[in-house]
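Need tokens for this chain, all 413 residues.
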Amino acid sequence: MSIDKSVFKKKPATIICVDLGSFSIKAGYVGLDVDTGWMPDITQRPVVDLYKHRSGRDKILSHNVDEETEATETTVGKRLLEAEIDSFSQQYNFESVEAELSSILSQLLSSTEKDNSAFIFADAVSTSINDRCKLMTLSMEKFQCAGVYFVNQPILCAYANGRTTTTVLDCGFTQSVVTNIYDGIIDRPNVRHYALSGKHVTHAVANCLQLHERHLNNRALANSLSHATSKIGYEDMILTKLKREKLFVSKNIQKDREKSKSGSQIKRLELPDKSWITVDQCQYEGPEILFAQNTYGTRHVQESGNIVDMMMTNALRAKTPLTNVVFAGGTSMIPFFDAKIKREIISKSRDDEGKATLQVNIDPPTKRKPREFSAWAGGAIFAGISTMQGMLITKEEYFEYGADAIVPVRCIH
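Here are the structure tokens for all 413 residues:
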């Protein structure tokens, strides 16, 4: 194959950040003006089959715990050490990736711009080197881009919030990940993956609707709930609209349940076919499975703990204070999510004298950079630094050394 060496001398004029999320793919030009807001140009789903599970004991949760930490953990969910939960491995469906990237490029770039564009991929912490190499090969040979770089999503979430040292809780659709970052480098031995996530909230909402609501004569809603209750991970337009517009984390679950019994908390939701339904208990019972067991969630997932126990366990094991916490992911955008976590951690960490042993400081969300797009926004910021052009893996380097040799060395984030 003959290679046109003249393309090597060109510096990429256009950089596109592509966030390969577990629920959707976000892509857009970087270097936006701050007044326009940090929002991707394109958001598409479904994107790829990112995560495949295998059941068994989570090896990450059962290694080298000293006696002092183990004794302390009895009050914050020691059952996490013994529970059988899902462990995750990242696996891309490259046919889907190729189709999605082709669609994105056709919308964002003209044919003359492709040779002079570069990609920054925001991927999960669990993405393998092998899959990064395949993405590199796909970008260089199929799409003829001028440069590629890979950065893990938690690092970009931290950058989007102006942090280089922080703890990131990425509560997405497929899994929740707690990551400690020090000076822009991930503490990989202490990365925690948990099964509890947005898909379980969707499953609980569907179960609650089926049990308590009185409008299942709507065929579209009935079909949606039937799929969602039979298969964890299913979410369509109706359930997405319900989650975005009506869900909230309860400040006092008992009071909200009493209001539901009295009928004072009923709200209406307009469906895509312009019909209306009333929603009541599902508004708060769905998100509640992230914090406590209830009758609508999945038993084996709930028994493995909750979001608060996960964060406290991570803080104790990694000996990391929770004074600088960043939230990311669409599930963390549920109203009152931050306040509930902060209140529960302080409550559970009180000693015999009633003093809280853990202090929590959570970065508040901003309208200009919503948590749903924080990894993409961080990629836009990362691409704007002065040294970014030198970090890109160029066509010349790819064809000279190969993806297998250069990706593990150059892409350290």
